[in-house]
Amino acid sequence: MTQEVLQIAGVDIAPGRSLRLAIPVAKLYTDTQVSIPIQVIRAKKPGPVVFVSAAVHGDELNGIEIIRRLINSKRLSLKAGTLILVPMVNVYGVLNQSRYMPDRRDLNRCFPGSEKGSLAARVASIFIEEVVRHCDYGIDLHTAAIHRANLPQIRANLKDAQTREMAEAFGVSVMMNSDLRDGSLRQAAVESDTRILLYEAGQALRFDEVSIRAGVKGVLNVLSHLNMLKRRMTRKKVTPFMANNSAWVRANASGIVTLLKELGDQVSKGEPLAIIGNSFGDTLGTINAHRSGVIVGMQKIPLVQEGDAMFHIAYFSEDEEVIAEQIEAMHDELIQAETEVIGAMP
After folding, report:
1. E strands present in 263-344
2. Calpha distance 305→33 (Å, rounded)
3. Shortest CA distance to 154 belongs to which of 82, 229, 238, 231?
4. Is the dihedral of CA 69, 71, 75, 81 positive or negative?
5. Where is each Succinylglutamate desuccinylase/Aspartoacylase catalytic domain found (predicted)?
6. How many CA atoms lie within 13 A of 229 on its CB side?
7. What is the spatial distance between Cα 165 and Cα 156, in angstroms, rounded to a whole number?
8. Measured in Å, how far apart are the chain's first and last C-alpha atoms?
9. C-alpha angle 18/20/24, rounded to 5°?
10. What is the DSSP letter of 194?
11. List of domains in the chain
């Protein structure tokens, strides 16, 4: 719950204030100071403390745009609680347009970190101490890795009732019950008694409008669910479907790919997903679905090696055709949504 005075980076922030801060981290080789940018918005009335973070992987840019639009959204007016917005956690990665830290470590495998460890460990420790430890809830914004794309989806510990309620409130069609990974921000947050959602959508180094709009709307939906907004979000009810499990379908040959399916498509067992050929146009292999399901992630580069992960297919108890139809309907709704709701930049 909201503290009387919140202190971040040595700065006291009283209820009712909104403040932009810069948390210093290690300098560049050039002696240039590097800082993690933060915006803190506090209502006068006590309530939950929530963080929204982006660019833990420095090449995952959709989350930065989601937070930019949130800050400029007329809907973001708090009646209770505190919101901590962190558009760039891995500032070094953003500067280099890289997933990784300068020491080649994945920041999302270095939490909770150590103030005396590697550069990645030190950044992780600073973020936990300055942000996460204050928070009751968190939303961590991600995209797929380079040359891949993800359907908008929530990954979380759906066995926890409150976390599941948040995931359902977010309002995207697909939820995945996801185990905690060692060293991840999600694991460190849970160990700090912070309930957290991981939003996955879009591609690295690209803005995807639908993914961004779904993210803006989803964060506002969660804040509304937590009774933090002055204006409650009125939204068309989306019934998220929870995937029982998922698996990657891999390339059975090396070559050039012709995709037959796209994100959100419903596929049946044995159905062709892609054709692999050589540079002369000869067919070398066909990638088929192993089970019926919905494509929630896929490789986007047309050059593949045998064994490459090509299609991420989620499996559900419900009718996959119904799920695919809802995904398409949500896509159309977001494209047609009013600017006020999704916070599109001018």
Report:
1. 266-267, 272-277, 283-288, 293-299, 303-304, 309-315
2. 41
3. 238
4. positive
5. 46-226
6. 18
7. 11
8. 35
9. 145
10. -
11. 6-241 (3.40.630.10), 245-315 (2.40.50.100)
43 close to 4: Cβ distance less than 8 angstroms:
no
pLDDT per residue over 228-272, tens digit each?
Answer: 998 776 666 778 899 989 999 999 999 999 999 999 999 999 999
**pLDDT 10s digits, 275-292:** 999 999 999 999 999 999
- Residues 6 or more apart whose CB falls under 8 angstroms from that of 39 comprise 18, 19, 20, 21, 71, 84, 85, 87
3-state secondary structure of 127: helix
The rounded distance, in Å, linking the Cα atoms of 154 and 156 is 6
pTM (2 decimals)? 0.94
Give the number of other Cβ atoms within 10 Å of residue 292's Cβ. 17
CA pair distance 22, 35, nearest whole angstrom: 5
Structure tokens at 300: 């986007």
Instruction: Give 269's Cβ-side CA count (13 Å radius).
Output: 3
In the block, tokens 């580069």 appear at 301
